[in-house]
């Protein structure tokens, strides 16, 4: 393989941390507090669920960091699973990324970007007469079509940006992340310092009048929303072939990035709950077209605050969409190099970027934008991704047995308790999602299982290429 066929190792620790945080900080920090309040009816329980979800996410990140430090390579878990389990399981993971996990994440982030743009500059309605048209009563492709087309345009634009080179895409993420940090700091500082803020009320565990007591299932449903906000930290592993000293920098970047985000989420959600009572949060959720962060900032800054936070959401979702597009396509590139994905996805352009892999991802993500609403897409992502979070964490135990003497730049803190808790939680969340979100779980599972026939098709095609007799070359 020549030099032009190799990925460019140009990302140091700083950019690794930027990509980790950039993949996490998206729409969830602004939107998910409202559905959590509707599930729990208690501000204290909402904050507790943010903290619990952060702890579980950190446990998963610490476990993933040991595996990544040992096996760091382009493709992330796809590369890891081949050594932990087998090629079939690795393929199912890679195909699931393409079919639902990463592409639906890109779709939902771009969708929120378009919603926020629409709230600042109302988009003209398109094909309103077809808004009620549905496929099986589940998908409404023409509902909010102008918003969906804007989201698709963003995906196309950012795909083009990332085809220009990995440092170019990561540099854009750095700039956007600085703007996001500044914006969130302003919200927390001025929000908690305003006369409207009641900081003590945000820690109250009592439920609102007439609400049912908090149940185990409600806590899991609320954490499902929180996990969307934490989703994306593992994507840095997909860039393993483009990171300097990946075995050290991936574990360090994941740990620093996740800890930073947990602190930000607790602080900013405490601010929202201090400004808006839970009953108002429930009304925001019921309205469907409102965003909790916008309504919270509106309480102390009025219309100007609503515009400010809408612009901040635009910038944040732009950054997270960009970071997700940047990282995700590398897994399909790694698969195609082994003949286990569409052949063109293995090609690099002049900027050493897998441009065709980016293109395939772009097309499917755009189709998913048409398929569903924001919450439908995010619940589907979390259901699917936690299957593999559990598998990676269980891989810590497998690798300790398979490769006991291998050098590990990082060993998970609290072994074996920390990874065991993460595995058990993933199993519990899997079954609870089937109970409380059966439609999203069903759609996610069907998309993942399409990987079974695709695996045999790619295997058959690969064997056919190997067994085919060489063709005589004819010079012209």
TrEMBL record:
Residue ranges of the TM segments: 12-30, 42-62, 88-113, 133-161, 168-192, 212-233, 254-280, 300-333, 353-374, 380-400, 412-435, 441-458
Keyword set includes RNA-binding: no
Top-level taxonomic group: Bacteria
Protein name per its UniProtKB record: Amino acid permease
Question: Which Gene3D superfamilies does this entry report, sorted A to Z?
Answer: Amino acid/polyamine transporter I (1.20.1740.10)
Report the membrane topology from the UniProt record: Multi-pass membrane protein
The protein's organism comes out as Pontibacter saemangeumensis
PANTHER family cross-referenced by the UniProt entry: AMINO ACID TRANSPORTER (PTHR11785), SOBREMESA, ISOFORM B (PTHR11785:SF512)
């Amino acid at each position: 393989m020549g030099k032009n066929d190799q990925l460019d190792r140009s990302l140091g620790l700083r950019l690794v941390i930027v990509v980790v945080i950039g993949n996490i900080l998206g729409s969830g920090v602004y939107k998910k507090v409202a559905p959590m309040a509707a599930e729990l009816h208690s501000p204290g329980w909402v904050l507790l669920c943010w903290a619990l979800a952060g702890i579980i996410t950190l446990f998963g990140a610490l476990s993933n960091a040991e595996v990544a430090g040992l096996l760091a390579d382009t493709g992330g878990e796809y590369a890891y699973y081949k050594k932990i389990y087998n090629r079939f399981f690795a393929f199912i993971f890679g195909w699931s990324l393409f079919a639902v996990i990463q592409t639906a994440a890109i779709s939902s982030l771009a969708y929120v970007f378009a919603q926020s743009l629409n709230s600042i500059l109302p988009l003209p309605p398109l094909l309103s007469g077809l808004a009620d048209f549905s496929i099986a009563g589940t998908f409404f492709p023409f509902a909010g079509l102008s918003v969906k087309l804007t989201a698709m345009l963003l995906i196309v634009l950012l795909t083009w940006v990332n085809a220009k080179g990995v440092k170019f895409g990561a540099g854009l993420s750095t700039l956007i992340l600085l703007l996001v940090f500044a914006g969130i700091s302003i919200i927390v500082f001025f929000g908690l310092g305003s006369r409207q803020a009641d900081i003590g009320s945000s820690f109250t565990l009592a439920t609102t009048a007439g609400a049912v007591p908090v149940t185990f299932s409600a806590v899991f449903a609320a954490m499902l929303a929180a996990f969307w906000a934490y989703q994306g930290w593992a994507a840095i592993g997909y860039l393993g072939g483009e990171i300097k000293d990946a075995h050290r920098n991936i574990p360090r970047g994941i740990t620093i990035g996740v800890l930073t985000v947990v602190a930000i989420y607790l602080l900013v959600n405490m601010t929202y709950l201090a400004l808006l009572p839970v009953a108002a949060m429930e009304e925001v959720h019921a309205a469907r077209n409102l965003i909790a962060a916008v309504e919270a900032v509106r309480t102390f800054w009025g219309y100007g605050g609503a515009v400010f936070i809408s612009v901040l959401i635009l910038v944040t979702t732009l950054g997270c969409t960009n970071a997700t597009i940047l990282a995700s396509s590398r897994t399909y590139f790694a698969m195609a190099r082994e003949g286990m994905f569409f052949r063109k996805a293995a090609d690099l352009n002049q900027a050493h970027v897998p441009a065709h892999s980016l293109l395939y991802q772009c097309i499917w993500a755009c189709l998913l934008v048409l398929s569903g609403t924001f919450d439908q897409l995010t619940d589907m992502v979390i259901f699917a991704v936690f299957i593999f979070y559990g598998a990676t964490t269980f891989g810590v135990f497998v690798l300790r047995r398979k490769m006991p003497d291998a050098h590990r730049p990082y060993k998970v803190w609290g072994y074996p308790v920390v990874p065991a808790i993460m595995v058990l939680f993933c199993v519990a969340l899997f079954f609870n999602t089937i109970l409380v979100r059966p439609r999203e779980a069903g759609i996610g599972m069907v998309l993942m299982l399409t990987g079974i026939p695709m695996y045999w098709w790619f295997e058959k095609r690969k064997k056919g290429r190997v067994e085919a007799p060489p063709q005589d070359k004819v010079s012209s």
